[in-house]
Amino acid sequence: RLLSELDDIDKESSLASVSILLCHQATYNKLEVTVQKACNLPRIGMGGQPSTYATVQLFKEDSVDKKDIVVKRNSRDPVFKEMVEFDVNIDANCPLSRYSLVISLIHKAGIVGRDEILGHVIFSISSPQKSAAEHWKFICDTPHQHLEQSHSLVDPDELLNSNESSST
Predict the structure, then answer these.
(1) Which of 2, 48, 116, 132 could bond 43 through an S-S bridge, CB–CB 3.0 to 4.6 Å?
(2) What residue numbers bound the domain in which 84 lies?
(3) What are the pLDDT digits (tens) for 65-84?
Protein backbone atom coordinates (compact mmCIF):
# COMPACT_ATOMS: atom_id res chain seq x y z
CA ARG A 1 0.00 0.00 0.00
CA LEU A 2 2.78 2.43 0.89
CA LEU A 3 4.46 1.75 -2.46
CA SER A 4 1.27 2.55 -4.37
CA GLU A 5 0.90 5.82 -2.43
CA LEU A 6 4.50 6.72 -3.26
CA ASP A 7 3.83 5.89 -6.93
CA ASP A 8 0.83 8.27 -6.89
CA ILE A 9 2.93 11.07 -5.36
CA ASP A 10 5.68 10.43 -7.91
CA LYS A 11 3.19 10.60 -10.79
CA GLU A 12 1.80 13.92 -9.53
CA SER A 13 5.23 15.47 -9.06
CA SER A 14 6.48 14.19 -12.42
CA LEU A 15 4.10 16.21 -14.59
CA ALA A 16 6.12 18.03 -17.22
CA SER A 17 5.69 21.79 -17.23
CA VAL A 18 7.11 24.90 -18.83
CA SER A 19 7.39 28.44 -17.48
CA ILE A 20 6.37 31.12 -19.98
CA LEU A 21 6.59 34.93 -19.76
CA LEU A 22 4.24 36.86 -22.05
CA CYS A 23 3.83 40.57 -22.73
CA HIS A 24 1.85 42.43 -25.40
CA GLN A 25 3.75 45.63 -26.22
CA ALA A 26 0.75 47.32 -27.84
CA THR A 27 2.55 50.61 -28.58
CA TYR A 28 5.09 48.74 -30.72
CA ASN A 29 2.68 46.10 -32.11
CA LYS A 30 4.82 43.32 -30.60
CA LEU A 31 4.09 40.16 -28.66
CA GLU A 32 7.04 39.10 -26.50
CA VAL A 33 7.25 35.41 -25.62
CA THR A 34 9.96 34.18 -23.27
CA VAL A 35 10.41 30.47 -22.72
CA GLN A 36 12.01 30.48 -19.27
CA LYS A 37 12.47 26.83 -18.27
CA ALA A 38 10.93 23.39 -18.35
CA CYS A 39 10.63 20.93 -15.47
CA ASN A 40 10.18 17.18 -15.14
CA LEU A 41 10.47 16.36 -18.83
CA PRO A 42 10.08 12.65 -19.54
CA ARG A 43 13.07 10.34 -19.78
CA ILE A 44 14.08 9.66 -23.37
CA GLY A 45 16.11 6.79 -24.81
CA MET A 46 19.01 4.99 -23.19
CA GLY A 47 20.48 7.89 -21.22
CA GLY A 48 17.11 9.24 -20.15
CA GLN A 49 18.14 12.87 -20.64
CA PRO A 50 16.29 14.66 -23.45
CA SER A 51 17.90 17.30 -25.64
CA THR A 52 15.06 19.77 -25.90
CA TYR A 53 14.15 22.74 -28.03
CA ALA A 54 10.96 24.76 -28.23
CA THR A 55 8.94 25.99 -31.16
CA VAL A 56 6.74 29.03 -30.71
CA GLN A 57 3.94 29.46 -33.26
CA LEU A 58 1.59 32.42 -33.53
CA PHE A 59 -1.65 31.72 -35.42
CA LYS A 60 -3.91 34.39 -36.91
CA GLU A 61 -6.81 33.22 -39.05
CA ASP A 62 -5.09 31.46 -41.96
CA SER A 63 -1.48 32.47 -41.29
CA VAL A 64 1.19 31.18 -38.93
CA ASP A 65 4.52 32.62 -37.82
CA LYS A 66 7.00 30.16 -36.29
CA LYS A 67 10.19 30.69 -34.30
CA ASP A 68 12.53 28.17 -32.68
CA ILE A 69 14.24 28.32 -29.30
CA VAL A 70 17.78 26.88 -29.06
CA VAL A 71 18.38 23.22 -28.08
CA LYS A 72 19.34 22.54 -24.46
CA ARG A 73 21.13 19.20 -24.29
CA ASN A 74 20.85 16.36 -21.78
CA SER A 75 18.50 17.82 -19.19
CA ARG A 76 15.05 16.93 -17.87
CA ASP A 77 14.91 20.49 -16.44
CA PRO A 78 16.34 22.74 -19.17
CA VAL A 79 16.68 26.49 -18.62
CA PHE A 80 16.12 28.44 -21.85
CA LYS A 81 15.53 32.09 -20.83
CA GLU A 82 15.12 32.99 -24.48
CA MET A 83 12.72 35.60 -25.88
CA VAL A 84 11.18 35.78 -29.32
CA GLU A 85 9.06 38.64 -30.69
CA PHE A 86 6.16 38.55 -33.08
CA ASP A 87 4.65 41.46 -35.00
CA VAL A 88 0.96 41.75 -34.13
CA ASN A 89 -1.17 44.32 -35.92
CA ILE A 90 -4.00 44.87 -33.50
CA ASP A 91 -7.09 47.02 -34.07
CA ALA A 92 -10.79 47.00 -33.21
CA ASN A 93 -11.51 44.51 -36.01
CA CYS A 94 -8.67 42.18 -35.06
CA PRO A 95 -7.90 42.16 -31.32
CA LEU A 96 -5.12 40.02 -29.85
CA SER A 97 -7.79 37.61 -28.58
CA ARG A 98 -8.29 36.43 -32.20
CA TYR A 99 -4.73 35.11 -32.22
CA SER A 100 -3.53 31.81 -30.76
CA LEU A 101 -0.06 30.92 -29.53
CA VAL A 102 1.27 27.36 -29.33
CA ILE A 103 4.51 26.48 -27.59
CA SER A 104 5.81 22.96 -28.20
CA LEU A 105 8.71 21.27 -26.44
CA ILE A 106 10.49 18.79 -28.68
CA HIS A 107 13.23 16.23 -28.06
CA LYS A 108 15.95 16.66 -30.68
CA ALA A 109 16.90 13.24 -32.02
CA GLY A 110 20.49 12.51 -32.90
CA ILE A 111 21.74 11.90 -36.41
CA VAL A 112 19.46 8.88 -36.69
CA GLY A 113 15.83 9.07 -35.65
CA ARG A 114 12.99 11.54 -35.59
CA ASP A 115 12.42 14.44 -33.23
CA GLU A 116 9.75 13.64 -30.64
CA ILE A 117 7.12 16.10 -29.39
CA LEU A 118 7.14 16.10 -25.58
CA GLY A 119 4.09 18.32 -25.20
CA HIS A 120 2.38 21.61 -25.94
CA VAL A 121 0.90 24.65 -24.24
CA ILE A 122 -1.94 26.29 -26.17
CA PHE A 123 -2.62 29.96 -25.46
CA SER A 124 -5.99 31.13 -26.74
CA ILE A 125 -9.31 32.24 -25.33
CA SER A 126 -10.72 28.77 -26.08
CA SER A 127 -7.65 26.78 -24.95
CA PRO A 128 -8.33 23.34 -23.45
CA GLN A 129 -5.77 24.31 -20.79
CA LYS A 130 -7.47 26.52 -18.21
CA SER A 131 -4.23 28.10 -16.93
CA ALA A 132 -3.12 28.97 -20.48
CA ALA A 133 -6.55 30.43 -21.37
CA GLU A 134 -6.42 32.63 -18.25
CA HIS A 135 -2.82 33.67 -18.97
CA TRP A 136 -3.78 34.60 -22.56
CA LYS A 137 -6.85 36.55 -21.39
CA PHE A 138 -4.68 38.57 -18.98
CA ILE A 139 -2.20 39.39 -21.78
CA CYS A 140 -5.03 40.38 -24.15
CA ASP A 141 -6.71 42.59 -21.54
CA THR A 142 -3.62 44.27 -20.05
CA PRO A 143 -1.07 45.46 -22.61
CA HIS A 144 2.45 46.33 -21.41
CA GLN A 145 2.11 44.01 -18.39
CA HIS A 146 4.48 41.04 -18.11
CA LEU A 147 3.09 37.83 -16.66
CA GLU A 148 5.08 34.66 -16.06
CA GLN A 149 3.32 31.37 -15.28
CA SER A 150 4.09 27.68 -15.37
CA HIS A 151 1.82 25.43 -17.41
CA SER A 152 1.58 21.65 -17.60
CA LEU A 153 2.39 20.26 -21.00
CA VAL A 154 -0.46 18.65 -22.90
CA ASP A 155 0.51 15.27 -24.32
CA PRO A 156 0.09 15.47 -28.12
CA ASP A 157 -1.70 12.09 -28.11
CA GLU A 158 -4.22 13.32 -25.50
CA LEU A 159 -4.90 16.38 -27.62
CA LEU A 160 -5.55 14.27 -30.72
CA ASN A 161 -7.77 11.83 -28.79
CA SER A 162 -9.85 14.61 -27.19
CA ASN A 163 -10.35 16.28 -30.58
CA GLU A 164 -11.38 12.98 -32.18
CA SER A 165 -13.85 12.15 -29.39
CA SER A 166 -15.38 15.64 -29.40
CA SER A 167 -15.89 15.57 -33.17
CA THR A 168 -17.73 12.24 -33.19
Answers:
(1) 48
(2) 1-159
(3) 999 999 999 999 999 999 99
